[in-house]
Design goal:
Elements lengths: L1 E3 L6 E3 L7 E6 L6 E7 L2 E7 L10 E3 L3
Parallel strand pairs: 3-6
Antiparallel strand pairs: 1-2, 3-4, 4-5
Length: about 60
């Protein structure tokens, strides 16, 4: 699965393990943190996380 960063447009490759996921990912290029929700391998929602509202325990540091 691929998700484009809402901040810089970089394509983030997501592992198939994130087919059903509700949490945060981090862009390796601009460091923006995105709140995403996926169901059955499809992106359902994506927003840029507000500063100060980051959940470090659930943030995935995406691999390029």
């Amino acid at each position: 699965m691929r998700i484009n960063c809402l901040s810089c447009g970089y394509t983030i490759d997501m592992d198939n393990a994130y087919g059903d996921y509700d949490g945060q990912i981090k862009c390796v290029i601009c460091k923006a943190v995105l709140n995403i929700k996926t169901e059955e391998g499809e992106l359902k929602s994506a927003t840029v996380a507000e500063a100060g509202r980051l959940n470090s325990e659930k943030t995935v540091f995406s691999r390029a």
